[in-house]
Design a protein that fits this description.
By secondary structure, the chain is an alpha/beta fold. The chain is built from 12 helices and 16 strands. The protein has 3 domains: 307 residues; 73 residues, no CATH class; 50 residues, no CATH class.
Length: 473
């Protein structure tokens, strides 16, 4: 970037991708009063440490994405307050990299390796956000170890607010060791891929011992040394990228209660314990009320877990009115189910349709609903359609049909084996009747010869009736 192309004495400079030539950041004179710099995919030259730039002493806000940080090495940013480094390039410079941020209060690192934390000095940090990913457990363990040894050991970086947005597949032992280094944070939010990322063993380490065992949902593990982890913690949160899948089981509610109760009894009360069941959730569940357990929110969480444990299969087993009641009282997105919120216009139209057939005989009402029902049902399940019409509330069934057809189809699939079994049973009865009739003597009127003063008719009875009566002989 030639000096002539730089605005006179800019205080804010944003450089986006698309530049092919190397951009000189340090030497242009017009940048000596620069206060904010945001750069993305910016090609930078290699600078020697003896090159000085005035804007290093004036810069307050820095955000780099896919840009080299080599130019920061060996320099002290005297007034820098916020620093965000995302997907850094030229990782080989980290071996000799060193930057000092004496007044930085808010720092975010979204990187592939947390080795950079060992190269940044910021002893007045208030908020630290670390974003890293690894689906390989050994690498995940190493990343957590680096977070502890290179950032949190001896309070070298001692943030009061720590957000660990690390999609790490690491062992429980590695997570427990990491928590042991988090003595300073007052707020800890852990972003997880799914609820199983941080299991009972890890969360149980946050329970304060000794406590009154009869008041807690879990007890201390015999023979283990119970060390107080996160003693300064006031606000704790778990932010899940996704909620439970059908094959997953949620067993964390007891340990959640134990964390809140034990810390309240030890005068280390949590002011907040929040759960995000999806990544875009704006209203998390707050499991504390004051400094105590929020029973109402725990009931909501239990409802989410109950439904998600078996997903649609669990929901579809409920009667139609109960399904509508559950989906109406809980935000659909927080249940983990592939459902959309019911359209108010569709709901109103469904009610008008049911109201219009209310005065008809029940058989005609069933026919009117059934004619629409077969259009959304799985093919070949007319017997199941009739079963639903006979056993379910027609209004609730119509709302499932129009607003939640996925649930209705799942409900029909769950009933299909039973219907198939009944059909096989009827064919089996027919075969039994045929065999019995062929091997029993008959009189001239078509009656089977009585045995033990009982008579079974060969004609004029449904198959199931014949079979039932023949089983008595």
């Amino acid at each position: 970037m030639p000096p002539s192309s730089v605005p006179s004495r800019p205080s804010l400079l944003t450089l986006q991708q698309g530049l092919r030539n190397l951009v000189d950041l340090l030497t242009p004179a017009p940048l000596h009063q620069l206060k904010a710099l945001s750069a993305s995919h910016l090609p930078l030259p290699v600078y020697h440490n003896d090159i000085d730039s005035p804007f290093v002493h004036t810069l307050r806000h820095l955000r780099l994405r896919s840009t080299s940080i080599q130019w920061m090495s060996g320099r002290t940013f005297q007034v820098l307050e916020t620093c965000t480094l995302i997907f850094l390039i030229h990782h080989h410079v980290l071996d000799t990299f060193c930057a000092t941020l004496p007044k930085c209060k808010d720092s975010t690192f979204e990187v592939y390796s947390l080795h950079i934390l060992n190269a940044v000095s910021a002893n007045r940090l208030t908020h630290l956000s670390v974003v890293c990913s690894s689906s390989y457990k050994p690498r995940g363990n190493r990343q957590l170890a680096r977070l502890c040894s290179e950032a949190l050991r001896e309070n070298r970086l001692a943030p009061r607010i720590l957000h660990i947005s690390i999609s790490i597949d690491a062992t429980n032992k590695a997570w427990t060791k990491a928590l042991a280094f988090m003595s300073n944070p007052e707020e800890l939010v852990v972003h997880n891929a799914q609820p199983s990322s941080l299991g009972v063993e890890v969360l149980q380490s946050l329970v304060v011992h000794p406590v009154r065992a009869y008041k807690l949902s879990i007890t201390a593990t015999p023979g283990k040394c119970n060390i107080l982890l996160c003693p300064s913690l006031k606000r704790f949160g778990l932010r899940y990228r996704r909620w439970l899948r059908p094959s997953e089981y949620f067993d964390l509610i007891p340990v959640f209660k134990s964390i809140i109760q034990s810390r309240e009894q030890a005068n280390l009360s949590l002011h907040s314990f929040r759960i995000w069941t999806r990544v875009d959730q704006n209203d998390p569940l707050e499991l504390t009320e004051g400094l105590l357990i929020s029973l109402e929110e725990f009931e909501v969480l239990k409802g989410y877990a109950m439904i998600a444990d078996l997903a649609l299969a669990t929901l579809a087993r409920l009667p139609a009115p109960e399904i509508l009641k559950f989906l109406g009282s809980n935000p659909v997105g927080t249940t983990g189910l592939p459902l959309r919120k019911a359209d108010p216009h569709v709901t109103r139209t469904t009610n008008e349709f049911i109201d219009s057939i209310q005065r008809r005989p029940i058989a005609q009402q069933k026919k009117a609903v059934g004619d629409k029902l077969v259009k959304v049902m799985v093919k070949g399940v007319h017997r199941i359609t009739n079963s639903l019409l006979d056993t379910e509330d027609l209004r609730a069934l119509a709302h499932l049909m129009n607003s939640y057809p996925v649930v209705l189809k799942e409900k029909s699939l769950l009933q299909a084996p039973a219907a198939k079994q009944e059909e096989v049973y009827n064919y089996h009865n027919l075969f039994i009747c045929f065999v019995l009739i062929q091997h029993r003597p008959q009189d001239s009127n078509g009656l089977l010869v009585p045995r033990n003063n009982r008579v079974v008719y060969r004609h004029h009875h449904p198959v199931s009736t014949i079979a039932r009566k023949n089983r008595n002989h």
